[in-house]
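Why this split exists: single-chain examples teach little about how molecules sit against one another. For that reason, every record in the complexes split bundles all components of an assembly together and asks for one structure covering all of them. Below is a record exactly as it appears in the raw files.
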Amino acid sequence: MNNKEILIKNGISPSFQRLQVYSYLRKNNVHPTAFKIYNDLKKQIPTLSKTTVYNVLKLLAGKNLIREVKIEDNELRFDAVLQEHGHFKCSECGKVTDVFYDKEFVDFIEKRNKITDIQFNIIGICENCLNNKN
Amino acid sequence: MNNKEILIKNGISPSFQRLQVYSYLRKNNVHPTAFKIYNDLKKQIPTLSKTTVYNVLKLLAGKNLIREVKIEDNELRFDAVLQEHGHFKCSECGKVTDVFYDKEFVDFIEKRNKITDIQFNIIGICENCLNNKN
DNA sequence: TCATAATTTATACTTATTACAATTATGTAA
DNA sequence: TTACATAATTGTAATAAGTATAAATTATGA
Ligand SMILES: [Mn+2]
Ligand SMILES: [Mn+2]
Ligand SMILES: [Zn+2]
Ligand SMILES: [Zn+2]
């Protein structure tokens, strides 16, 4: 099932802009901010509006086709990897990478509460940056 | 060791405003935003400035006397509980409560990276709100 | 007391996100 | 094809959290 079909299956009419934003997220697993998506796509779509990017992201998140990732307080990032996982952000290079954690722990919490979102973010310095420090 | 002594021990001269903000956080374990702290303390300190609250919070966080908690993307919260833990935010009543998780998992991540901050937040509906639904 | 430094305050600024209205594209009935 | 209704996109203005700056106040200590 390609990206276009996924949108249709979720009741989203696959406009050009929507397809571009969704495809961008599925192709580039870099946890971009709305502005980065806007800025990168503007090269191919000069008429693109920032509002549209925000609208599409909210639409996709509402249908659970992407997830919002809150690491720093001044930037909301987006992720098309739906499998439950956390993130590691390197404060040196800024890269955000995936961290997968134990499902059993989440099940324990889920027994008592109705979970709708989990944010698990670790900030630090990654292996690469630590080694390149010498 | 009382709050005043803790500030002094950490090289922070214990001004009235600083002591009030720090005491507020230690007394009320509600993970307030900067604005809530400002708004609540203004009742006792009518001359209090929002900038001061932000300044004090940043000062305390810099000395690791409090922790920043990032749950929603539009509000930064603060916590005087320093033991490593995550949070559960109820989307019904808005309350933020503590969630303690396995230290071993964090150790595994720590072997490879230098961790400076961990944010573990769960959003959902709490036991109370689930039961009061009928 | 007086000078100096530290702290607080008020104000203006920045910036991510949202609200809103105007414009454009799309699909369908006549 | 044309006209119309609806959906989607765009540009602009508004909102609001957080930050920067400088003036005003307060504390310190010679
Ligand atoms: Mn991810
Ligand atoms: Mn807590
Ligand atoms: Zn790095
Ligand atoms: Zn609740």
